[in-house]
Amino acid sequence: MENLSKLAKRIMIKTEKFEYSSFMVGTILDSEIIEREDVVRSEFKVKGGEPIKSEITKELSKIIRRKNGKVISLNKPELNILVNTLFDEIELSSRSVFVKGMYVKNKRGINQKKQRCKQCKSEGCKNCNFSGFMKLPSVENEIQKYLKKKFNANEIKISWIGSEDQNSLVRYKGRPFFAEISSPMKRKALFREKKMNHGIIIKSAEILRKRPTIDHGFIMKAKVNFESNIKDEKRIKKIEKYFNDRDISIYSMNKRKYFTRKIISIRMKKKEGNRITVELVCEGGINIKKLVSGENEQVEPNFRKILRIKCSVDKEKPFDIHYVKFQESEKKLKT
Hints:
With about 325 residues, the chain is of the alpha+beta class. The chain folds into 3 domains: about 5-95, 2-Layer Sandwich (VC0802-like); about 95-210, Alpha-Beta Plaits, CATH 3.30.70.2510; about 220-325, 2-Layer Sandwich (Alpha-Beta Plaits). It has helices spanning about 5-15, 30-45, 50-70, 140-150, 235-245, 290-295, 305; strands at about 20-30, 70, 80-85, 90-95, 95-105, 155-160, 170-180, 195, 200-210, 220-230, 245-250, 255-270, 275-285, 300, 310-315, 320-325.
């Protein structure tokens, strides 16, 4: 107990780099101290009262509060302080910060997610500098680097709202994403539009008050480019009428079951030779490539089945995302 002031001073030095308004102290005591307390309680038949571990934790918390002016919180503190008297160590961990943002991708050939190393299968090797990921540009990598610098954190986990092909663009307001910043030293950040490498831009971002719900659906608008030998534009117009406000069946190979998604509208925008461009508005979760090609009949119905001719997305410009919005806040988009 006599050393608590010295211990509190050490803690204050270690916490100087962290932004926080509330904290909680935890302690791991040397087993000898616990054993001595048990002997004393048994010898003098002491019942009730605070255990020495609780007493040390409370007194240490009070000393730290007087020094830093922060709030002691036992419910979701922003900074956890763990004192291990056995090894004379102090461990700090701050509560995660959650961010919601929108990104734009103006360059083709850029993956959304980081690609796992094929040589070591993400276990880490010299080829990937023991990161588990290939040295390829990606939206994920750029966003992680940006947020790590903003919050002075080591680990950023991103949750995506849908995905796009590496050769697709994400335009206009962009596509939303959520990020969890683990154990950040900074908890506040001022966000502006940020241009990053490889044509990636963060259009907007904000800090959320709590962990977001990311399993709700979304509606998207995309410009889809596909190839077909069909020459009759009236025949192509058939897919507009057929898919208007239509449910389609999708088979998930991973979950081994069918689920349903809605196509709200399809409109033909342009035809040049065997290349056709349509504007698609639909619910998220539809594989656009398979909607066009009918590959493995995983999406039913599909363009190939309705037009009765081979169809495939343009390899260089398969589809571009124009709009993504959460379905719970807007059921239908104006087309």
